[in-house]
């Protein structure tokens, strides 16, 4: 009778360790995972900057005369938004 609880406890301990090892293996960082992570960070930063540049250039083309005021302002806003995007993404993951 004493052998049963010890055997049962040992099986539970082995199961817990097996689950921990499987979880660690699934979450192990790989080269592909790092590449995707860095690519995502790049897109999160670059897209607001490029979008701001295009939008600013379009608004400046609607105004008569030569002006880059909106273009520069929206590029700077895009940089700020890109930094915030990257910060929030890193903090979440």
Mean pLDDT reading: 88
Number of helices: 3
Percent helix among the residues? over 70%
Percentage beta strand: under 5%
Radius of gyration: 26 Å
Number of strands: 0
Distance between the termini: 49 Å
SSE order: HHH
The major beta sheet can be summarized as: none
Apparent shape: rod-shaped
Specify the structural class. Answer: mainly alpha
**What are the segments in which pLDDT stays under 50 over at least 5 consecutive residues?**
none
What are the SSEs and their pairings?
Blueprint: H1 3-26, H2 31-62, H3 69-92
Helix pairs in contact: 2-3
Features:
single chain, 93 residues, mainly alpha, 3 helices, 86% helix
Describe this structure as you would to a colleague:
The model has no long low-confidence stretch (mean pLDDT 88). The chain has helices at residues 3-26, 31-62, 69-92. It has 3 helices and no strands. The protein is mainly α.
Summarize the structure.
The chain is mainly α and 93 residues long. The protein has helices at residues 3-26, 31-62, 69-92. It is 86% helix and 0% strand.
């Amino acid at each position: 009778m004493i052998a049963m609880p010890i055997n049962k406890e040992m099986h539970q301990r082995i199961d817990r360790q097996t689950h921990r090892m499987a979880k660690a293996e699934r979450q192990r960082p790989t080269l592909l995972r790092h590449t995707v992570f860095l690519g995502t960070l790049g897109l999160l930063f670059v897209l607001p900057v490029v979008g701001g540049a295009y939008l600013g250039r379009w608004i400046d083309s609607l105004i008569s005369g030569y002006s880059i005021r909106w273009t520069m302002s929206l590029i700077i806003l895009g940089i700020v938004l890109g930094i915030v995007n990257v910060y929030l993404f890193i903090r979440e993951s």
